[in-house]
Amino acid sequence: MIVIDAASPTPPYEQLRAQLARQIQDRSLAVGTRLPTIRRLAADLGLAVNTVGRAYRELEEAGMIETRGRAGSFVSAAGERALEQARRAARDYATVIASVGIDPGEAVRIVEAALGHASPR
Asked: What's the burial of 45, exposed, middle or buried (CB within 10 Å: 0-12/13-18/19+)?
């Protein structure tokens, strides 16, 4: 279920993008699942078509969904690959942190700082 908070300082397209990304990552939306059309989801959520379109484009750029022309948009297997790549990178990072003796709390702060400087996609 997608919920858009009109009072939130986070733009609606970002709320939608983040919620769909989370559902894809936690497998609530399985690989191959057909997403609602942009027009349908916009109507269901009371959003502008361009708002939903932007969220879908950003998810597509991230490899989490793919659009198959008139057939619609689907959860992509690439999202699974991206998640596995992130897990491998995290394991590698944890190995480096342990080998150089950095405190786990400090390691998390380093990641949080790096994510704060990363592009919000």
From this structure: middle
